[in-house]
């Protein structure tokens, strides 16, 4: 039972990441490989502020969101100059740079050693020590983020994003300024990823840079492409499948060496086959 | 001064590896206009087949080398024939092709890991040391080969593109594949050959890289990322640009390693990329914009 | 009568489940069985398996092992630890590396499960339920610095991998060099995955230090050494732990380095016979941890039908003194760190051999 709770917590955290990435890739058509960078910034901001400045979880998470927003403004400005494939490569570069900073700016981030003893969140006297309670918190955040994403998608703001995705020049003709919209959604998405990062840090109670590598983006991209671009339910279904898959393989009794590689083969084949059969994913409405 | 010379020689060697992978990448890119992230995996395939033929079949060096290069080329050709070409026919966007290639990288890395193990594997036992001095700088025989092969690839590609009928054909395809097709050029056939050549060259780079340090299933992707950076710096699709970009990237990286510290190498490389993308997206020798 | 005895013997032979009537103590190992560090997980698996097979039959409880693959990744460790604690209901967890240990230790503390980390980072032992069985960096650094002084070395260059354990070791060396007549001419950190060390080597070499101290895992240690030799640096290389981790140890023939004491030769022989390969990084530690746990359980158990609570076992673990382990005489201190000595090792024909330790290895007061 507790095992399922652990998996559900991971599902909630990755659900947040998938839904927020979908706002960029699915709704706006920006294939970003910078998401892991904001995930990492959120995780480190929470871990550092809670251990070094004895801040509570919620203010630390807000600071992390603020920091991610600032970083997103800078990165977004740089990225806004590019379209299509250049955008992908430049955003991948951002993840590599942030990972490098987490790894090598040891005075602040403690480098590869990581940060130990991150406390669990508390409201008043109640501490989310048990995983069951923590699942409640993580799931609440997932629901909030999904609602926010749903609101964005169905609002006029969301419609402009989709228009930009279909044809940026047409959107411009209609008097919208694509740059402003793209920057705004980039910042929003980054702040959401930052929330996931903060949750991840207090869930593990330990954080090191290894989670925030470039490959994490490939995993996230596989989730939303599988589940469906420009559909929030799709992003959640994708998360469920790809978080559950390795755990299922764990119980099948495959030799572990092979199981780990089989998992990667499955991810890879999913990407290839989906691009042939259903480029918009299971529930998606948009093809990249 | 001695130190400066050593750092320069180191940069030249690494720059040659970056440049060679960037040139082979550029050859395919200028013809098909998409970021083929699986290109680096061809280097890994070349390296592993070389290793396997040499150590398991006991073949001599030249035969193993040929087998590695051929296997990589064939892999590149088949991937194009069965995956990229059908997507091209469906008029898939370059981003779709990029995502497909990401899937291919993941599969190839996993399959290589299952076949040869995920660990790093040196091609030369560490006991075999074959360095000599040029002035104050140390260099190994393999490194001299890396530099020489890099120049050969450059000369060969330039000759191929500008001195042969084949070169004219693929330049025509690069300009406009649809027009080329209506003129009766078998575009898919020529693109297939381009993929074969590009992948075979990547395989050669993989073997050289393996002989210099060693092999790992994930080696290709990392090498390709640096190759793409080199290619963008030099001007995407430009062969001389790729060579120039590779050497420039390596010089900047090594200067950074020397002055700031080794642990900042990747950040330095990608900051350089972002600076170029922001200020000069067409690269040093490129004409078109990003 | 004879038939009856025979029948009984057959029955007990055919139904070893008789033994399972004893309460079961489950020990879970979360180790990398795949990925770059798979050989470490394999070596630990071997050590623990051998310890279980070596166990005397007349124990009060039945001891079982469970293995989970975490690939030495934090995210996967959280999942494997969750599975060990909640699905397998293990009594104790063994982890390897400071990163993995850092994930396991808070979980162990909240779920009240005993945790042994094989880790250099001392914070892995924080809390009541957490223990470390790895020669502490302070011990290794002390031995290294004493040996450097004894050999009259004045200048050193350090090249280290940016990885939890090795950074802890590096920090400890720098701390212990304070006030000593040894100068660090160059101190460089290199990120995992790097294969081209040549410019870093050139930079270190420019100051012409007496000796180079390198702290890396395999394969970096072999690549680095090869590149150092190619740059003309031959025999003035030393290390903490690194040479012992190499898959090509003969590369370091004739060089001295500091590591945990060499495991007893009995153990090495037994292990090699059982698995037809030499024990690796972590094998003797896993073997010792299994036996320490068994010793504590057997001592804490008053009723053979009921397992003692974890709290009693922990109390007994802390009381362990001069335990005859394969890594020497082991004592558990109040923080939960198993004190095992560091030693100067010399690589001879690809095999680590203990060199007579310099005097300063004796406990040097408050550390």
Explain what you see.
The complex is a heterotrimer of chains A (288), B (290) and C (367). Chain A is mainly alpha-helical. Chain A is built from twelve helices and two strands. Chain A has one domain. Chain A has a two-stranded antiparallel ribbon with strand order 1-2. In chain A, helix 2 (35-52) runs parallel beside helix 4 (84-104). By secondary structure, chain B is mainly alpha-helical. Chain B contains eleven helices and two strands. Chain B has helices at 2-32, 39-56, 61-89, 94-116, 141-163, 165-175, 177-182, 187-212, 219-234, 239-259, 265-279, and strands at 131-134, 137-140. In chain B, helix 5 packs antiparallel against helix 8 (187-212) and helix 9 crosses helix 10 (239-259). Chain B starts with a helix and ends in an 11-residue tail after the last helix. Chain C folds into two domains: 2-135 and 264-336, Rossmann fold (3-Layer(aba) Sandwich); 137-260 and 343-361, Response regulator (Rossmann fold), CATH 3.40.50. The model of chain C is unreliable at 4-19 and 357-367 (pLDDT under 50). Chain A binds chain B through residues 31, 78, 81-86, 88-90, 92-94, 96-97, 99-101, 103-104, 218, 221, 225, 258, 261-265, 267-272, 275-276, 279, 287-288, and chain B through 34-35, 83, 86-87, 92-96, 98-100, 102-111, 113-114, 118, 225, 228-229, 232, 261, 263-264, 266-267, 270-271, 273-274, 277-278, 281, 290.
- End-to-end C-alpha gap of chain B: 39 Å
Using a beta-carbon cutoff below 8 angstroms, give the protein chain pair with the largest interface and the number of residues from each chain: A-B, 41 and 43 residues
The oligomerization state is heterotrimer
What's the level 1 CATH class of the largest domain in chain C?
Alpha Beta
CATH topology (level 3) name of the largest domain in chain C:
Rossmann fold
Task: Please mark out the parts of chain B with pLDDT under 50 across 5 or more consecutive residues, or reply none.
Answer: none
